[in-house]
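thread: overnight batch results

M.L. [08:02]
morning all. the overnight job finished for the chain we discussed friday. pasting input first so we're all looking at the same thing
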Amino acid sequence: MTRRYRFQALDANQQLVHGQMSATDPDELARLLRQHDLDLLLARRIPALNQRKLARRELIDFCFHLEQLLTAGISLLDALDDLAAGGSSKPLRHLYRGIADELRSGKSFSAGLPGEITRSDASFAGIVRAGELSGRLAETLGRLGSSLRQAEALASATRKLLTYPLLAATLVLTACLFLMFFLVPQIRSFLGNAVTDLPWYTRLLFSLSTLLQEHWAILLATPPLLALAAIIAIRQHPAWHEAWHRLLLHIPLLGEIQRKLLVARLADLLAMLYASGVPLLEALELLPQSISNRAVARAVTQVHHLVEQGEALSGAFSRHDIFPGLLTRMLETGERTGRLDASLNNLAGIYEQEARATIGTLQALIEPALTLSIGILLGWMMLATLQPIYDIVEQVAR
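M.L. [08:03]
and the structure it wrote out:
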């Protein structure tokens, strides 16, 4: 079993070199390092929990550079050596060098993929293995890169969708806390007993300000502590985790976006695996590991069991209401025409476009909704503080 080691070694100039490399044991690690004119001094196994995953952008770079070199006619081992020599980030150079060492030891490319890749995308190795066996590795890497770029574009659009509301909410919350802690108490002290009959909205504002001043530590610490406790509890109980993920799919608009993105990802991966020559049952077995939503992953696992028992793919998916009816109909068409990968590719395109359209609609709705909410909140605070002052001025004027 291949493990990841952090090592210290001496190069030919007796300079200390630090790095990471995959090997089955320290002896093999020393042998691999000697191939690079390095003498092993110290090796420490990296626990699985501390091993990093490749970011999606790094996976895109990995696929793009390898595909370009393979398409140009450069052999796989030479391409890995060239990429390890330079032209990429330092983590990727270590990764290329490690895969090249695995190839020299007699392993196939897919078997030599390190944990950084397989932990990032569990289906990656299966798709690469299919491309390797079919002799279309460059084409397979190109399709993987294209799929990852589309996923990154959608993820970027989703992050952009959430950034503005979070930033606006943070600024408004900061302004409100400043008013509650500093401005409102001064206004309340200034008014004193000058105005005996305060409006209800002013009394409410003063009461909230007093509550914050007296119990601010509890009020500020309770929400994050409750959120942390909920996260720990959900992760400790798989049934709760799955129920939470299922609940996320039913949030208005946001749940619809997530559902469409998940279906697009599912269809794209299944089409890629099937087109690469991976048997359907093996493809279905790989899919749940690449799906972030536990409820959807469990449903796909159940679909795999049903297909394994002889049920049609479309019939197995139709048993779960978590999947849209269009998915079932497209699968039926693909099974009937013998072009399952084409149907799945069309489905992925449809849901990617729908997800983009829904994200655009939500972005268009968020800005006026936030503006209205901020206006109402600040208007209430201004009215609650200025109205009593105007009453005092009127009394003095009389």
